[in-house]
Every structure is written in C-alpha cells, then in structure tokens.
Specification:
Blueprint: H1 3-7, E1 14-16, H2 17-24, H3 28-36, E2 42-44, E3 51-54, H4 55-66, E4 84-87, E5 90-93, E6 96-97, H5 98-104, H6 107-116, H7 129-140, H8 148-161, H9 171-188, H10 198-201, H11 205-211, H12 237-245, H13 252-264, H14 272-282, H15 287-298, H16 306-320, H17 323-332, H18 350-359, H19 366-380, H20 389-399, H21 406-427
Antiparallel strand pairs: 1-3, 2-3, 4-5, 5-6
C-alpha cells in the first residue's frame, strides 16, 4: 500500500446508485432526478454497469436538504424558479452567465433586468424622503456598537412603517418598492469617515447628501474630500455603498470590483435566506417583510457571515507572513479553512473566479491577493478545496480597509434584489404552498396529563 493509499479519505470513493439513495434517504429514481436537475453529478466507471457518485457531493446534497422524500407522499420538495441555474462550475441568471453580466452591466441594470426582463442602461435607484428619514432615525437610535446587519434589519422595518401602501402586492407596486428600498438600506447605513467611528458618522447627513450630488468621477477623489461628495445619492449604488464600508478613497478599479460583487451575489438558487423569502412570500407577506425574512436567515454564522471569517484569516496570514501556519491551525482544530470549498461547485466558484480577475487590476489588493493564493496553494496539498466567493470578497475588504463584517453587508444589499425576484415569482404561485408536513417523532398518544 502506498503512502497515498494510506492518506486517502474513505469518503472519496465512488458510491453506487443504491448507496447514494441510502445516504440521501430517497428512492434510486430520485437520485437520477437530482442528476437531471444538475444537483448531482454521475459517472460511469470503465467496465462498470451503472452510474457512480462522489461521496462528498452526495453528503453535501444531504446536508442541503436532499432528504425530502416522505413515505407515501411523492418526491422531495422542489421549487420551480426561472431565476438561477447552477450547472457544474457555472452560474446563470435567466440563462445568462453571471460573469458576463458582471463584466458588462451595473448592479442596478442587472437587478432591473432580473425583475422585468428589460435591460435599462444607466438606471439609478433613489431613496424616497419619508422612508429614508424614518430609516435613518431608527438606525441612529441604535447603540454605538451595533453592527451593520442589525442596522439593515432596523432600517427595513422603519422603511416599511413609512409606507402605508406596502400591502399592495401588484407587480408594479412591488417593483416600485424594490427600486426605492435598496438605496434606502444603503443610505441608512452611517458613513465611515476617517477619524470618526461609524456610529457617529450617520448623524446629520440628510441635508449634506443633498449638497453632495456631484458627478460619478467626483466620487473617486482623495481621502481629504468631504463625505457628501463620496457617493452622491443620485449616482451609481456602488460608490454610495463604498462610503458606508470604508473611509479609504475609492478608485475606479476598486469600485468596479465592488459593483461586480454586487451583481454576482444577487442570487444563488435556493440558499437558506432565499427559501425563507419564498416561504414569507407564499404567505403573501409584503416586500419589506420578505426582505426582513431574508435578513434573519442571512444573519446566521453559516451563511452571510462566512466572508468575515475569511477576512480575519487573510489578516492573520499577512501578519504572520505565511499561510502554512494559519492553515495548519485550522486543520489541527478540525475547522474548515474559511473561503474554500462550495457544495454546489466541484471546482472553483465562478463568482470567485470573476472577482479574482478584477482584483488583478487593483494595485493595493496585491498583498491580500497573494495571501489568498498562498492559502489556496497550501490547502491544496491536503484537501481538494477551491476558492469560493467569500475568499475573493475578503481580498477586497482587507485591501481597502473595510471591517470584517463588510462582506456580509455587501452580500445583504446585493441579495435583496434576488429576494425581490423570488418574491415576484412566488406571488404568482398558489398561496401557502410552502407548507411541508411534519414527521411527528414524539410520544404516541394518549399520554397522561402532565
């Protein structure tokens, strides 16, 4: 037996159809349904009589909820959607490669196209006065240590309270809400101004921002420029968000990466937060409420906060000068290395691939980019884990002086557009269809009165 044989992970072996079905808790024909939908890859071994499946991929599908076949009740819960297709190492919005969309269109353009099917060049989203005033007042009342996700959750509730017509679920009304809610969320976040903590930077901005409606090029100036000129409220969304994430000056290549990240993160099939949104929309919750549902699920440590872990890891690699010791610490503790691996992609996450290519044009990103490459190379000696979007996002946040939670903020703002798209789909479905049956496992009745 060779050293490689000794070190090989037993879960790397191929499973038969029956073994895969047993792990998933479904029938063999359901396994082939997963294959036809692109959720599972099959392979015929030379000389073999049937299909085989990667054990890790099967286990990942099981963790994502593959075990959905109740006895006597048909197959697993499936949600019909025309928004996102994930096919091996590619991701598509309405059949268009997301990398191409990010390369040629802004976040607002892609969001509008995703909602309406119309690509409106140069479209801008603006926040209405009443909603923005209510959101800022609510956010400014929070404790100084409050994080951005808490601020966003409070902002969406305040914006809803300022909209008495929020219960109108007609397509036109929902689209109007979507176009105003996203910029309201961004503008409600405090600016990160050099020399002032972010909690103080939000006070008294309402008038200043009206005075700061300069050209897009004015947003790319030096750090000495006054805050109102950074990200005018009638300009593109990316510069507006930039000033809420860092006090460092924005430059065109960095803004290009941020805008591309917003596009790439708009949707990713039925992630946990998106499923929560579909459930809320199935109950005919209004758009503000469905975004609140998404924020609630996104706030979990295993979802939106993942980029923060990658951010802290890159800082540690840069501080220690080597990825080897940092990766070893994670592996020794039995932790997965942050920013690596994704259950939906056998290879590299296409979103990470697109962002890494853009980061090459950002000079100040070179140290963090090299640290990320060192992590990937070091880990590859032991695990077949490729970079995911959290690692690429962490390179941007580390390189531009953003805090660790900035990646989650980008994720939340970007995904709001995708949640609206899913809500529009769900509003066209029969109401309350998201009602799975529970499988009771408690004591059998009758039981004595406690």
């Amino acid at each position: 037996m060779t050293d490689h044989d000794v070190a090989q992970d037993p879960d790397e072996r191929r499973l038969s159809t029956r073994e895969a079905a047993d792990r998933l808790g479904v029938k063999p024909e359901t396994v082939y349904a997963y294959v036809s939908r692109g959720q599972l890859a099959s392979r015929r071994e030379p000389g073999g009589r049937g299909s085989t499946f990667d054990a890790k991929e099967v286990d990942a599908l099981a963790r994502r909820g593959g075990r959905r076949e109740p006895s006597g009740a048909g197959s697993e819960l499936a949600v019909r959607t025309g928004i996102t297709l994930i096919d091996r190492d590619h991701c598509y919005f309405r059949g268009v490669d997301i990398s191409e969309l990010a390369a040629h269109h802004s976040y607002e353009e892609v969001a509008e196209w995703l909602w309406t099917g119309e690509m409106r060049r140069g479209i801008r989203f603006t926040a209405p006065h009443d909603a923005l005033t209510a959101a800022r007042r609510a956010v400014d009342a929070l404790p100084a240590h409050t994080g951005p996700m808490d601020r966003l959750q409070v902002a969406v509730i305040a914006a809803a309270a300022a909209d008495p017509l929020r219960f109108d679920l007609s397509e036109r009304a929902v689209l109007d809400t979507a176009r105003t809610l996203i910029p309201t969320l961004v503008a409600a976040l405090p600016r990160r101004t050099a020399g002032r903590p972010p909690a103080q930077a939000g006070a008294g901005e309402a008038g200043a921002e009206k005075a700061g409606a300069g050209r897009a090029g004015d947003e790319l100036g030096a750090a000495e420029k006054p805050a109102p000129e950074l990200g005018a409220e009638d300009g593109p969304l990316a510069p507006r968000l930039w000033s809420r994430l860092t006090s460092e000056p924005a430059d065109p290549p960095s803004l290009r990466v941020l805008d591309a990240a917003l596009v790439l993160l708009i949707d990713h099939d039925l992630a946990a937060s998106t499923l929560a949104v579909r459930v809320a929309a199935s109950a005919r919750a209004h758009p503000y409420a469905i975004v609140s549902a998404g924020f609630g699920a996104l706030d979990g440590a295993l979802h939106g906060a993942a980029s923060g872990l990658a951010h802290r890891m890159l800082l540690e690699v840069l501080d220690r000068g080597s990825a080897a010791a940092v990766v070893a610490d994670h592996l020794r503790a039995g932790r997965r290395v942050p920013g690596l691996g994704h259950p939906l992609y056998p290879g590299e996450d296409p979103r990470a691939r697109a962002l890494f290519a853009l980061l090459e044009d950002v000079p100040r990103a070179r140290p963090a980019l090299q640290a990320a490459r060192d992590v990937i190379t070091t880990t590859a000696r032991h695990k077949e884990w490729r970079a995911n979007v959290d690692l690429a996002l962490a390179v941007l946040t580390v390189a531009t002086g953003m805090p660790a939670e900035a990646g989650e903020t980008v994720f939340a703002v970007a995904r709001t557009a995708g949640w609206i798209a899913h809500a529009l789909e769900e509003y066209d479905e029969p109401p309350l269809r998201m009602r799975p049956s529970g499988q009771y496992s408690g004591p059998r009745p009758p039981q004595p009165l406690p």
